[in-house]
């Protein structure tokens, strides 16, 4: 939490006095942290403190603009490979997973390093790849909710959203209702051109991942009504894992704990199905 807060504060100011004030304010709150909460919810206060102390609501605004621009520049090169691949859906999933490299929460925002990492991983296969189950669930009359993650990577998500929509599946894409780290907002969706590929809605809050206590009615209805939910990135995995809905988690495992939870190695690409669980008891008296 302290590392996250200091990284965010340094995005806003070079003043070490403000950096210290951020850490002192956060230290007061750490004593009240409930470690039974998800990492996404625990981290939330670190970013709120930065905004409170510095007066800057969106510390990563510049980084988001830069990564959106980078992704838009790279898109023609990688999109052509996906479109002309032997299995376009598989290629689009791979491209979307590579976009998950862009993550200010773990300090990965340098455009040159991001570009090098994405190009390096282009030929890397998934460690877990439940594409056959996913493919069987798409088609006319089906509804898919795509939980977006970060700015920049949302550009690569447009290729996957378009490929899914091409099966006749109705695609809805969710973004955050306010700035949190470098998570995608409505503005990023417009920059990426997502509105041409999916219906875009907001979660109703500025939380990392999904905070089901603060979501909007529109998002709640979309979540409950989806036949398939594609959850992108760490925050969505951390907050949606274990839920009873029909979920597919798409991410690059960027921390040891998430990798261990998924049964993979650090930096592996993962597309993992978490099937729906019936909440109706089958017990008969």
What would you say this structure looks like, in words?
By secondary structure, the chain is of the alpha/beta class. It folds into two domains: 2-54, no CATH class; 61-274, Uncharacterised protein PF01937, DUF89, domain 3 (Rossmann fold). 48% of the residues lie in helices and 13% in strands. A seven-stranded mixed β-sheet has the order 1-7-6-5-2-3-4, with helices on both faces. α1 runs parallel beside α3 and α4 (61-83) runs antiparallel to α5. It is globular and about 55 Å long.
List keywords for this structure.
285 residues, alpha/beta, Rossmann fold, 2 domains, 12 helices, 7 strands
Contiguous runs where pLDDT drops below 50 for at least 5 residues: 280-285
Main sheet record: 7 strands, mixed
Order of helices and strands: HHHHHHEHEHEHEHEHEHE
SS summary, helix count: 12
CATH superfamily of the largest domain: Uncharacterised protein PF01937, DUF89, domain 3
Helix content: 40-55%
Based on CA atoms alone, the radius of gyration comes out at: 19 Å
Mean pLDDT: 91
**Number of domain units:** 2
Stated plainly, the CATH topology of the largest domain is called: Rossmann fold
CATH class of the largest domain: Alpha Beta
E-strand count: 7
Beta-strand residue percentage: 5-15%
Q: Which secondary-structure class do the elements indicate?
A: alpha/beta
**The CATH architecture of the largest domain:** 3-Layer(aba) Sandwich
Any idea what the shape is? globular
Biggest β-sheet: strands ordered side by side in the sheet: 1-7-6-5-2-3-4
Distance N terminus to C terminus? Answer: 50 Å
């Amino acid at each position: 939490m302290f590392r996250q807060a200091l990284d965010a504060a340094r995005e806003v100011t070079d003043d070490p006095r403000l950096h210290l004030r951020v850490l002192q304010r956060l230290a007061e709150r750490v004593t009240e942290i409930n470690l039974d909460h998800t990492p996404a919810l625990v981290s939330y206060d670190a970013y709120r403190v930065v905004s409170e102390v510095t007066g800057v609501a969106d510390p990563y605004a510049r980084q988001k603009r830069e990564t959106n621009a980078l992704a838009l520049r790279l898109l023609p090169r990688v999109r052509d490979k996906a479109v002309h691949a032997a299995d376009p859906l598989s290629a689009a999933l791979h491209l979307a997973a590579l976009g998950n490299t862009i993550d200010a929460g773990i300090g990965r925002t340098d455009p040159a390093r991001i570009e090098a990492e994405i190009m390096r991983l282009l030929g890397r296969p998934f460690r877990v790849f439940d594409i056959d189950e996913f493919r069987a669930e798409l088609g006319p009359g089906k509804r898919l909710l795509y939980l977006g993650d970060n700015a920049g990577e949302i550009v690569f998500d447009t290729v996957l959203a378009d490929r899914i929509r091409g099966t006749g599946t109705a695609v809805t894409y969710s973004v955050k209702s306010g700035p949190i780290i470098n998570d995608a907002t409505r503005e990023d969706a417009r920059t990426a051109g997502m509105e041409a590929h999916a219906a875009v809605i907001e979660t109703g809050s500025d939380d990392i991942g999904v905070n089901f206590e603060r979501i909007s009615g529109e998002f709640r209805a979309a979540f409950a009504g989806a036949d398939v939910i594609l959850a992108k990135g760490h925050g969505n995995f951390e907050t949606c894992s274990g839920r009873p809905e029909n979920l597919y988690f798409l991410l690059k495992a960027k921390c040891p704990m998430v990798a261990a939870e998924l049964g993979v190695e650090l930096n592996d690409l993962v597309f993992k199905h978490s099937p729906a669980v019936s909440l109706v008891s089958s017990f008969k008296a």
